[in-house]
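Entry 12.
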Amino acid sequence: MKPDFLRPVVALDMDGVVRIPRPEAGGVEVISHEITVRRDAYPRLFHSLPHWERDGTNTETDYFSAYAVRWIRSLLDRGVDVRWATTWGPYANTYFTEPLGLPHLPGTPGVPTIPYDTSASWKARSIGADTRGRPVIWVDDHPREETLRQHHTPRALTSTHRINPVTGITQTDADAVDAWLALASTAAGQEDLRRAWRRELARRRRQPPDDPPIPYYAFV
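Predicted 3D structure (tokens):
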């Protein structure tokens, strides 16, 4: 097996990435499952509360991108380290992985607990702490690359990919992430990513004074 520094992590959101709102909106292939959630095992922040039945459960039909599920399986078959980065926390495994035919996946530790935090900043901090020293790409419908780079090193091997929440992951998305993974999985590819990051820093240094300054952590 490759050493960890050559094994990139795919940090994967659930809602708007794998789980999508309406099957007819995006014109994509979907999988539907009846999902029963429990009041005693439900995220407290960033989720609206469903209508609870007397037994403390709620059952609804949820829709998932069929392509996303196939792609996750292909990543796992290739030995890629796939982890949940979702405000569902451990409940992503509780409710979704088994119906989708996926194994339980590691996730960002814990669940959000600070009410004034944002879901994106919580995810960025958690991903950064959990994957420090390894290449990581955060796949989300609202990723914040600068925030992730603030919390994760090496910054040249830190990336994000934004998903359209209506469709979830498509082949175009998967191809883009796979191309980055191919680079991040080899020493030569990582050097290419470092050169690209140095070029980006040089471009930012040349930006007009009225533009936002380069964050201090970019040079760390």
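Annotation: Helices lie at 66-77, 91-97, 119-131, 145-151, 171-184, 187-205. The chain has a mean pLDDT of 90.
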